[in-house]
Amino acid sequence: MNNDVVPVEIRELFHTPNGCAIFLGNTDKVFVIQVEQMMGQVISMFLSGAPKDRPLTHDLMLSMFRGFNITLERVVINDLKNSTYFARLILQEQNELGRKIIEIDARPSDCLALAAALKRPLFVSAPLFAHLEDMTETLQRIKENAEGQEGPEGES
Asked: One digit per residue, pLDDT tens: the chain, 156 residues?
């Protein structure tokens, strides 16, 4: 893996009529990834620590990680082709034979869900980050509009 990466974090998550907009970024730039509605709900649940009645698919994956002594080291969003983002899970397996680093191609939405669940770092490849449109002002406008629509004591 190319180590030329930029750290980012999930800045905001907004449910939209067509899915969910996840704003990622740092103090330099913010960009948005669109995910399907259900994945947005899953990521939101992991971010908030909301209890679930039954384990979700990502909970099953986390149980398997624990069972095989695998840790999620980090997530790297590494490419954008035809408006589709690509990402990698960087996993570490530790057993009696030693330590092994494994990179797995995965949907960014799955990577974000697992990173949110485990509070693991997120990165974007530096070349990709340099080419992404800065959505900082758009995010700020959305937040200001949302605040302006709230009723008394933060109620909508």
From this structure: 446 999 999 999 999 898 999 999 999 999 999 999 999 999 999 999 998 888 889 999 999 999 999 999 999 999 999 999 999 999 999 888 889 999 999 999 999 999 999 999 999 999 999 999 999 999 999 888 877 776 555 444
Task: Report which of 53, 65, 51 is spatially closest to residue 110, judged by C-alpha positions.
Answer: 65
What structural domains and CATH numbers belong to the chain?
5-143 (3.10.690.10)
- Tokens 């800065």 belong to 134
Cα–Cα–Cα angle for 130, 38, 40, rounded to 5 degrees: 35
**Which pairing describes strands 70-81 and 122-125: parallel, antiparallel, or unpaired?**
parallel
d(CA 39, CA 111): 11
